Amino acid sequence: MAEIIDGNAVADEIKDEIVVEKKKLADKGITPGIATLLVGDDFGSRMYRGQVEKNCESVGFNYIDKSLPEETTEEEVVNVVKELNEDPKVSGILPLRPFPGHISDSAVINTIRVDKDIDCFHPFNMGRLTLGEPTLAPCTPSACIELMERVGVEFEGAEIVVVGHSNIVGKPVALLALNRNATTSVAHIFTSQAGNLEKHTTGADILIVAAGKAGLITSDLVKEGAVVIDVGINRVKVLDEEGNPVLNDKGKPKTRTVGDVDFDDVKEKAKAITPVPGGVGAVTNMMLLKNALTAAKMQAGLE
């Protein structure tokens, strides 16, 4: 039976550390702050915006909400970013995507000051990450690494397979692992479609899964005694014993949140595993605050 890596407990530890560091900065007259940039009314982005605001309040950070109508022009959005770049109350800028179709991601992201780019979207910071130089690292990939480091996982020489090759998680987490001297491979959903996933994953001492497909990884794809980090967040229907959807009191199918890993199956074979929910996601929220803290230090010449 695998050790269940408690992301909520790790997140609480990081939060306590952030509060201590925030008080030290306060003695120097510095308060970190995060500004979110939302254009339009995307439901997921609005929910995340609220979570960021709540997290900032919980540690005493400044929080600035820049929510703009969907019809806002790209030029107007870029000008808002420029204003935030110059705002001393803002140590980190977080663009909430997706943007409306008429607004280019790159136009917005490339405008963000690199020392306020707290989720490492800017090509400059991603380039530094590729070169193994100190930089603000993406929050979810950093959360994966932080979880493993805090439970004593050794990276040097370990065989790590990342399943998923997105710019947000798969590629940067592979780089973070490689920068810690792991032997790193990247597979993805197309590897699975070609029937080649098993030959990669079954050799992994550490398996990081961020493919966006519920139940993709089953025990037959996992090496005995591997550490399994599940980044996936998927909503699936709750089924009864006969495989039929369970309905709520309004007659609609009940759903639950699961990862990309078949947790109940894989936990019998892995050495350690993160649950969903209660794993990577909880730590990701704290890594955003930690990056904002680091950015505040950078801007004050303390980092």
What does this structure look like?
Helix content is 39%, strand content 16%. By secondary structure, the protein is of the alpha/beta class. It folds into 2 domains: 29-119, Leucine Dehydrogenase, chain A, domain 1 (Rossmann fold), CATH 3.40.50; 139-283, NAD(P)-binding Rossmann-like Domain (Rossmann fold). The strands form 3 sheets. It has a 6-stranded parallel beta sheet with strand order 1-11-8-7-5-6. Helix 1 packs parallel to helix 11, helix 6 (139-150) crosses helix 7 (170-178) and helix 6 packs across helix 11 (280-299). The longest helix has 20 residues, at 7-26. The mean pLDDT is 95.
Short description:
With 303 residues, the chain is of the alpha/beta class.
Q: Mean pLDDT, nearest integer?
A: 95
- The termini sit apart by 42 Å
Number of domains: 2
Taking the sheet with the most strands, its summary is: 6 strands, parallel
Quick tags:
303 residues, globular, 2 domains, 16% strand, three-stranded parallel β-sheet, Rossmann fold
Question: Topology, pairings included?
Answer:
Elements: E1 3-4, H1 7-26, E2 33-39, H2 43-59, E3 62-68, H3 74-86, E4 92-96, H4 105-109, H5 123-131, H6 139-150, E5 159-163, H7 170-178, E6 183-187, H8 189-193, H9 197-201, E7 206-209, E8 227-230, E9 234-237, E10 255-258, H10 263-266, E11 272-273, H11 280-299
Parallel strand pairs: 1-11, 2-3, 2-4, 5-6, 5-7, 7-8, 8-11
Antiparallel strand pairs: 9-10
